[in-house]
Amino acid sequence: MHLYHEHATPPPHAGSPKHTRGRHSALRIGLGGPVGSGKTATVAALCRSLNEDLDLAVVTNDIYTREDAEFLIQEAVLPPERITAVETGACPHTAIRDDISANLEAIETLENSGGPLDLILVESGGDNLTATFSQGLVDAQIFVIDVAAGDDIPRKGGPGVTTADLLVINKIDLARYVGSDLEAMANDAKAQRGELPVMFTSLARTDGIDEVAQWARQQLHLRSRHTV
Amino acid sequence: MLTNTAAGTSSSKAMLLVLADGRFPSGNHAHSGGAEAAVHLGQITNANSLESFCRARLNTTGLVMTAVAAAAASGIDALLLDDAVDARTPSPSLRATGRKLGRQLLRAARATWPDTSLDRLATERPHGLHQPIVLGLAAAAAGLHREDAAAVSAYETVNSPISAAIRLLGIDPFEASGILARLAPELDAVTARAVESSERAERHGITALPRTATPLLEINAEWHATWQRRLFAS
């Protein structure tokens, strides 16, 4: 299924702005959220869940290392040529929102070297609660927070919590150890987000990831209906 | 300032600001202009050494890139200029960075100033052209003149390491702006020299473009490219 390339082929139409994006280009889903909330673990779990029948690739935005990309390679969730790391010049939110150039180039290189892809996951570097993805970079975005960072995060809101297409609250297995009230988190998230979905996961136990994967499939389905 | 050309026409000041704006989304923010390696080597430790670093970069590789931007804006063959930049950039990492930034600027320029010559360039040169060439062509597509392209290029030469040093060393941002203001006369002087060089290159060929270099920047860049942990791509 996956063609292996020793050297990534440069994009044949480097520099295409978004409005020239091909009809058959991959769906792009961004994953943002604070440091340590489980973005990389979510990406890895999604890849494991989806890569049997979908052609996937991942772009990581590490803050100062290639650790996220290397973790995904070590976990063997995807072949190395399907994972690209982008450097963000100490500003992870800039790279996904204000100046998306490097991420767009990484996406195009993946699409042009790996054959047609169905889905590209763009993982943001760990950032603050205001970091959201540009519409020019992704089609939908997931914001990942965790119960251990405090159960008041959904109440505090902020663009990530309130506007992301999907809010994932991770590490629910830790809730009882850190005194986090899951029901209050769910209620606060509902108050902030209205009808937008919220899902609870525990990636240490793989709880909840099927639901997130199903949501990703639904995004693919919605997009294919719109573009056919 | 409206720029007067030989033909006496003026270019749009507002359009120049669009191209020169540090928020113009062309991928620059992830690059330090050599500052990250210099900080780690103790070559930049404070505002004073940052200013010296910028002055050196401006008058060497900065002059070359600024002249290339002016030459591209004035219509000198982009592919010849690309070879000229290669010949003036010994570090393979810096050559790769220059092309990467060129591709990213081309994307932003095509979206901002739709132009068939920029589209053709993207198709003909999928690996990209060096950034100052694309800058010159983008300036032309925006209706700007070679003087404008050169001024933007010179400014980027120093603005990039200065904004990186603010993040790397916590340099006082007000002090950093002061450095930029102090360097302004030198930026204008380099711009003027670069424009003259591009005019000579039109008459005598591209060998008339400047060849100044800072070997230490090239050596640092090769070292920086091997790091496992870094904040900036270059």
Question: Any overview of this molecule?
Answer:
Chain B: It comes from Actinopolyspora biskrensis. Chain B: It is found in: Cytoplasm. Chain B: InterPro entries: UreF, UreF_sf. Chain B: This is Urease accessory protein UreF. The complex is a heterodimer of chains A (228) and B (234). Chain A has helices at residues 39-50, 67-74, 92-98, 101-113, 153-156, 159-163, 175-178, 182-193, 209-227; strands at 27-32, 56-60, 83-85, 119-123, 140-146, 166-170, 198-200. Chain A is α/β, with parallel strands linked by helices. Chain A has a single domain (24-227), classed as Rossmann fold. A seven-stranded parallel sheet of chain A has the order 3-2-4-1-5-6-7, with helices on both faces. The longest helix of chain A is centred in the last third of the chain and has 19 residues, at 209-227. Chain A starts with 26 loop residues before the first strand and ends with a helix. In chain A, 49% of the residues are buried. In chain B, 68% of the residues lie in helices and 0% in strands. Chain B contains ten helices and no strands. In chain B, helix 3 (47-73) packs antiparallel against helix 8 (146-169) and helix 3 (47-73) runs parallel beside helix 9. The A-B interface holds A 10-19, 63-66, 86-91, 94-95, 98-102, 104-105 and B 23, 25-32, 100, 103-104, 106-108, 110-111, 122-123, 125-128, 164, 167-168, 228-233.
Residue runs with pLDDT of under 50 for 5 or more positions of chain B: none
The name of the CATH architecture of chain A is: 3-Layer(aba) Sandwich
Tally of DSSP helical segments of chain A: 9
For the record, the CATH class of chain B is Mainly Alpha
| Biggest pleated-sheet summary of chain A | 7 strands, parallel
Total strand count of chain B, please?
0
Global structural class of chain A? alpha/beta
